[in-house]
Amino acid sequence: MIQLYTKNETLARRLEEVGLEFLFLSEEAPDLEALFICDPVNLTSLYARYPNVKVLALSTHPSFSEGITLLQKGIRGYGNAFMQKVHLLQAISTIENDAVWLYPEMMQALILHGSKAMVSNEDVLETLSARERDVAKEIEKGLSNKEIASALGITERTVKAHLSSVYEKLKVTDRLTLALLLRR
User: Fold this and answer.
1) Which of 107, 136, 165, 172 has the least CB density, counted as fewest CB within 10 Å?
2) What is the mean pLDDT of residues 106-123?
3) Which residue segment(s) compose the domain that 48 sits in?
4) 81 and 136: one domain?
């Protein structure tokens, strides 16, 4: 059972609406199991007190600059406090599995931001088939599955199949890690 914590009353009401249990975060926080949902908290003192905690930061007005700042401070996920329940549960699951979760626009912006300063590593792509390489290069550009499907003239399902194969061959778990690997 994951315990979700917040000290933002608006977010607490939202969590209640989607049927997730939560507790209010206080200076005397109870023992933690896996995850905090915060908006915002003092992350330095939180990590000092609970070094194994995984943080999903939810903002009522998410922005790229805020997301970057929080990622640099060690959060594992960042998104909109008003996202749909299915996306919130996906974020929680992703973070529980030791991956990073970001809302799609943040993910694309982060990939594009990183691509300005880095060059692709062709050696990484050598193990992939030609079509997998095409899909990986589109991920590096920050495109969504739908955009990749359109650009390559294939279905989104085919894009997902190629991505699964790419992840397995390159031993990565998500598109952000893939994009960063391609920029080494």
Assistant:
1) 165
2) 63
3) 5-102
4) no
